[in-house]
Fold these 3 entries.
Entry 1:
Amino acid sequence: MNKNYYAIIMAGGIGSRFWPISRTSHPKQFIDILGTGKTLIQNTYDRFLKVCPKENIFVVTNENYTDLVKNQLPDMSDNQILTEPVMRNTAPCVAYGCFKIESINPDAAIVVAPSDHLILDEAAFVATIEKSLKTATDNNSLITLGIKPSRPDTGYGYIQYTEKTINKDFHKVKTFTEKPTLEIAKTFIQSGDFLWNAGIFVWSAKAIIKAFEQYLPEMNDIFAEARPHYNTDSEKTHVNQAYMQCTNISIDYGIMEKADNVYVLPSEFGWSDLGTWASIYELADKDYVGNAVIPAEKVIMYDSSNCMVNVPNDKLVILQGLHDYIVVESNNTLLICPRDQEQNVKKVVADVKQQFGTKYI
């Protein structure tokens, strides 16, 4: 196993689209949302154990989730859990993790990935990451993984690539497009040179820090100034001060869309970003009329089909005459809504917060 390979797991989100199961105090990355016996962050950590030594895996999360990380990933030392005092999107998160790793090992090659994705083909994933780490090291490039699209999905970002390649398989990126309309997504699929943006990045420490210097110079200066404090007792104090000065910006918008050394590797490893209940429904086991029930111990359904049901183990639930619905109960909160209207959940959460405060959020 290559000692220069490192992983950063981004685990600071609140997963509001999975409310009421995912809550601010216990978001979806810390939940066994698929009923596999392991939480999403535990599965992500286990995957990276196959890529790099366990001491080379770091988690960046909100400081409120420190104990959750420690409980679910007991092998991680305090120095491997990087805490953010406030949410500032992905660019500061990446800067913090990469500057810290660079101070430990200037020759590091780093993969950065979200904590809440599903990967069905782990062997293909590990091979893809290792290939990308080597290519990033050898070519001083910023690499992102693109998923070959199976449908014109409006919930994903898209990456357009050119015929220019390095190592034959890594294509020069032409454009990034945020979530498009259905008509535009259809044209993307038909053109054949677009991929879904998986939000997984690979680069050398040197290359990403050079990119920060060039494209986000103010943020670069903030984290560069903290160099004497990384991996010391004063790290947290200085990083907290750094975050208060950072703009709220994504790594995609801040660097990847601007840099001229960005390459994408078309990939297939059974990926889903588990962004919505619809994505959970697609992946879950279903009965002969299309109902997905997690867990199914005390749920009885009559004349009901194509429903996504997630309720507590100890609750007896009877559903009759319900078709194409989401039924979710958790934390003394019950949500029932049509499957095709689940995009309204974020608005519901905002309304609940306004009417009842943060008790149910």
Note: The mean pLDDT is 94.
Entry 2:
Amino acid sequence: MPFRDPNHPLAQAENLRRAIHAAGVALWSWNVTDDQFAMDEQAYNLWGLAYSHQVKFEDLSAHVHPADRDRVRDAFSATRGIVGAYEIDFRILVGEEIRWISARGLGDDSALHKGQMFGIFINVTGRKQAEEGNELLAGEMSHRVKNLLAIATGLTNLTSRTTTTAVEMAQMLTGRLAALGRAHDLVRPLPGHQGHATLLGDLLSILLSPYEDMGVFSGRIRVAVPRMGVGEGSATSLALVVHELATNSLKYGALSVETGTLDLSGSSMGQDLELVWMERGGPQVEPPSGANGFGSSLVNRSVAGQLGGSITYDWSDAGVIVTLRLNGKRLAA
């Protein structure tokens, strides 16, 4: 064994202290008879306490986070009945800062030496924060996937009732799902703690880019909107609205002919946002007759329900003008 060699580096107490300090390990001993704690300098720093020869378990317990205090007290009281190693993770309060500590030691009275139990404290704040971040990310991803699956299921059911052929259904459903996918890809964290959002201008430009890429359509779509964030739920709803309007324009409006143009502009109206979809240079359009189709119903539900706004149509001879009035708070949520 290397420690039988008195010249081994780790046989020297000072080198052991150096290794312990380098590892960020804090040492403690607990006198189970009088409840006195003895700790090294690193432990006092970890707990944010001034050095003292008189530290009892209750003195340390007072600094444990209230949500963890009873659990820690019960765990330490039970350590003498634990056979083998134990580990307890808990939070402490150091001023306004919350730190995570892992207390580790050996249980059972067989681990006692002259009435004392021994162990270490380790600062595991970084690991706990990473774990919490991963849990939040997993929960968020699960939430997003469930929402998208629910929307996809609803779109499939509704589209099947409003199309007559498998080819038509596939084309309409693929387009709507693609709009959802493009909006979902844009939802990302923004700097400055703005939440999970995308910029409105980026969202609209990317949603309309497939129509802009069709050769003769190049340069005919212009987007000018305020710089603002759009939240995850609103991004998918707004994507559906934009996709339906663009699809109708491609079939019947300005984007159906080479001379047509589309201007999508926005302005702040107090706490709300007004988006104006203006088509020019296309064929003459007429207001739809009869009951609204699926696309119109989808747009109305999305605007009124998810976006908390309203939509109006102006079926002018020069081209349709669609005005969306959207709730600013809903849009950012």
Note: The first strand starts at residue 25 and ends at 31.
Entry 3:
Amino acid sequence: MTFSNVNPDANKDAVPDAMIVDAAEYPWSAVGRLNTGGRGYCTGILVDEYHVLTDAHCLFYATEGRWWQPGELHFVAGYQRDTNVTNSKVKSYEVAPGYRAHGGVSLASIMNNWALVKLDKPLGRQAGWLGLKNLNRKLVRRLQNGQGALIQAGYRRNAQHAITVGFDCGPDGFFSAQNRIGNRCQLKPGRADLPFLVYMDGKFNVVANRVLTSIAQHPPRSGSLSKASFRAKMNRGESQAPKAGAASPVPMTTISSLLESLGYSGERASRNKAVESKAAIRSFESNMGLPVTGEPSVSLLGEIIDASH
């Protein structure tokens, strides 16, 4: 089997701005749906074995003017159509100080629209979890210099039963002072409310900043993730791939799809898909000046995303 010497820069247009991913593969398995009383849902992200980060507004039942009770909530990790990685009832939750469900929309409520949900079961062991990263001046500068990638991941309004990942979030958007960032993702239909992830230094993390406006307005405004005391509670530690259970610790499906979009595919179909995949990975690694291993990994996925956008 032979592969052409692909130049990724020449194939960026072939990579989709967004795609449905396999929710049973990490890091996407750490993303799930927080279902609210059979009436709705929000995207939630596991940040340790027991805790899920979600939007505070998801926990308020506006129709009846009350907060959902924990017993009315259910979190499904790695949910995709009629399957999931694992699921749990909710034991309790805490809404960020400063968020107000009543009284209309305010800047303070938007900036504090976060909640930490505690589960009955340690789903992070089976699904993995993501750590938190602040978009401070240093991290933004690294993104601008091509040392990482900013993406979105979650259940968008027009695709409620599968995880969509948006790859076109920057860093070519408008950046300003510390904790301020503009991006193109918010201009996409159905994706304005999806959480942001950042790939850097071999790991995917949740972006711990609330982006309030897009690059359509100058300058864009943003705020830090709630108050420091609440942010400390949510900072559960480093990202961790699943160690057991139904989720795969390696995102092979996403890697294969992106490499194929970039042109890393055999000239003739191979009966041995594992051999073909290894060859595609080696070709990409060689072209990018990376150590040539031929092995899929979370960090390889990040490098592919970084190179293709």
Note: The chain has a mean pLDDT of 81.
